[in-house]
Specification:
The complex is a heterodimer of chains A (266) and B (144).
Chain A: H1 2-12, E1 32-33, H2 41-51, H3 57-60, H4 74-93, H5 97-113, H6 117-132, H7 136-156, H8 160-184, H9 188-192, H10 197-208, H11 212-215, H12 218-230, H13 244-262
Chain B: H1 5-16, H2 25-40, E1 45-46, E2 51-56, E3 59-67, E4 73-78, E5 85-91, E6 99-105, E7 108-113, E8 119-129, E9 134-143
Antiparallel strand pairs in B: 1-9, 2-9, 3-8, 4-7, 4-9, 5-8, 6-7
The chains are: A mainly alpha (266), B alpha+beta (144).
Chain lengths: 266, 144
Amino acid sequence: MKIALIAALAALSPVAFAQVPQKISLPPQSKLIEDVIVPVPSEIFGVLDNLGPSPNWVAVQHPIKTMASPMSDQPQTALLLGAIIAEGFVAVEAKDAEQVKQVGKSVLNLAKYFNVQKEVEKRSKSIIDAADKADWATVRKELDGALEDVKAAMNKLNSGQLAQLISLGGWLRGTEALTAVVGKSYTKDGAELLHQPLLLDYFDKRIAGLKPKYKLDPVVAKAQKGLIDIRPLIGLTEGSDISEKSVQEINRITSDLIKSIHSKDQ
Amino acid sequence: MKRFAPLVLSLFFLTLGLGPAHATIDDALSFALEAASPYVKEGFTVREDYWGGDLPVKSTKAIVHQLFKGNEYWFWMGTDQKNAKISVHVYDSAGNLAEVDAWQKPHFAAARVVPKKTGSYYLIVEVEKSPDERTYWSLAYGFK
């Protein structure tokens, strides 16, 4: 009877893996799927919230005073769009509904420039509605969705390279915010969040593969140099500590890049 | 008539229960997201981005992905082929099994990771069994 009961329970439960190898030889680079999913800022910010006293996210914000408008060229505007979406994630952490709404409007305005506003209209509205209700989980989800929708729509328009610059802009702003928080109250665990060699390699390859007219864009060229400068600071080997000095240096590099992305004088 | 040809063809295949376009990454993604759905109630944020493709039986694909210590992750794999057996497992950058939990069911497989370190992890997806020559799969993930 007991055996029958166990057998019945086993049949109902999800199948357990009989022989999952405990250790494998890692596949060579050539056998890997090339698609890299870049983490959204909230994926990292949430860890900081759990590490210690809640960071002062308001101090980390770069408030958008007026609705963001396109820059003089497409690559810089793509970087700006990514940075603005990341600013939305910072505003969510700061629970700043007005800034989130400003981000929602700015994303739509920049999407218009790339002819992908149709894909983002619904997301933008949802971001604004959810901010009004202080429904931060929905705002995070819709910001992530807006990012994916813009990139997917731009890929369809054969603007995949610009879509990659949107990801880079978001990563730069997210990293700037992360280093600002970690730099204010340094801990090894907080600094370890910067150990992202995979993402640096990914962006480096994407920039290397850009059309010459995009690669020669002054802001893109600056970003490429910035990534090279950041690489030795993020802990080259697994488990190596990232010093307070390195955190501050990464913050200086990313802050400088974000200023360039927002500047009309490039 | 040419405009309606695809519709007529689709209806024909639907009648036969074949549906030539039914097996796609999007369908596989629907199953992956279905697997994810109960975890949303547990506080997991499901990313909008995902991986996908098609694989022959007994072959694997590897995806490198950045994970952060302090988060908890679920990876959900889906396929629209009910009779396929699929799996997803997660290894750290030294090749050690890193998952703390994993399961398989018809249409689905999943693995949970609580990273001990921040860094790159290897997600190994496999179609273990399938009546199809190639089986569509999709992999989504969530964190909290």
